[in-house]
């Protein structure tokens, strides 16, 4: 599936619109004198690249949608943009970028508990790169809490990661080359031709806007497989001091 089909998600609109979010939602991660590990360092790390590719190969063999560098890059980008648009400090949204990029790396071991295994793998990688412990702790917590089965939000980076991860439903994620073999996840992803996280800081609203081609899947099927995820997204958005709107084919559902 062509990457060019992917429609961008969070658009950095007018920077003048940025307003600070509620102080209690912010993560303090400053460690004076500590080394700064950048998103680019993580993204270019050969071990990270190899592990993400291996994780996606594993899930592809099991029939899952794409969970490799495309998903990792997109989730990191959206997570960072959500916090940037809400006025969080640059280092906090860079940690969200890093957490988003690494969040599914645990799939290389097993799909089950991949949030927990991925969190421990991230610890090894980020320590090797020289990230201070307090920053590693934020990233590990976000990765370890991104799945709906057992995830609980306790900081802004974790909240942003959940919003970004669950928003990535899109045609370009389908890896199954045979449409006649599509399961419901393939069909709903394939039917989704646009997925956009719109942050409206001045109104304290975060909206997930989707366009679903009903030729391939019904809107009710989206809810059938993603209701639990949407509940998690709503909680994450409320943690950031905002309200959630879900808009599908220009109809508002929340
Ligand atoms: Fe995941
Ligand atoms: Fe994911």
Hetero groups in this structure are: fe (ii) ion
Which bin fits the share of residues in helices?
A: 40-55%
| CATH class division | Mainly Alpha
Major sheet attributes: 4 strands, mixed
Uncertain runs with pLDDT below 50, 5 residues or more?
1-33
User: What value does the average pLDDT take?
Assistant: 88
Strand order in space, largest sheet: 1-2-3-4
CATH topology: Hypothetical protein af1432
> Total domains, how many?
1
* Distance linking N and C termini: 31 Å
List the quaternary state of the chains.
Answer: single chain
**Proportion of strand residues:** 5-15%
Account of the protein in words:
The chain has a single domain (3-10, 37-252), classed as Hypothetical protein af1432, CATH 1.10.3210. 48% of the residues lie in helices and 10% in strands. The protein has helices spanning 39-44, 46-61, 69-85, 90-102, 114-129, 133-144, 156-167, 184-191, 219-239, and strands spanning 192-200, 205-212, 243-248, 251-252. A 4-stranded mixed beta sheet has the order 1-2-3-4. The longest helix has 21 residues, at 219-239. The radius of gyration is 17 Å and the shape is globular. The protein binds fe (ii) ion (2 copies).
């Amino acid at each position: 599936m062509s990457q060019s089909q992917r429609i961008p998600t969070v658009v950095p609109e007018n920077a003048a619109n940025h307003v600070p979010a509620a102080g209690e939602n912010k993560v303090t991660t400053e460690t004076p004198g500590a080394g700064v590990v950048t998103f680019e360092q993580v993204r270019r790390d050969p071990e990270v690249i190899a592990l993400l590719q291996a994780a996606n190969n594993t899930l592809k063999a099991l029939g899952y949608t794409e969970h490799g560098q495309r998903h990792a890059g997109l989730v990191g980008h959206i997570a960072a943009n959500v916090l940037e648009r809400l006025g969080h400090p640059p280092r906090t949204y860079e940690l969200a970028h890093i957490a988003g990029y690494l969040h599914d790396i645990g799939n290389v071991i097993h799909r089950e508990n991949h949030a927990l295994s991925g969190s421990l793998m991230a610890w090894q990688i980020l320590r090797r790169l020289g990230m201070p412990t307090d920053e590693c702790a934020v990233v590990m917590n976000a990765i370890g809490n991104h799945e709906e089965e057992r995830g609980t939000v306790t900081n802004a980076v974790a909240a942003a990661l959940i919003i970004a991860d669950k928003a990535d439903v899109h045609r370009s994620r389908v890896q199954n080359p045979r449409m006649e073999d599509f399961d419901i996840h393939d069909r709903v992803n394939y039917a989704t031709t646009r997925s956009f996280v719109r942050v409206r800081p001045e109104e304290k609203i975060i909206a997930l806007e989707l366009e679903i081609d009903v030729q391939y899947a019904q809107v009710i099927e989206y809810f059938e497989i993603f209701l639990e995820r949407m509940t998690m997204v709503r909680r994450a958005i409320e943690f950031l001091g905002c309200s959630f709107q879900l808009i599908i084919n220009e109809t508002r559902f929340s």
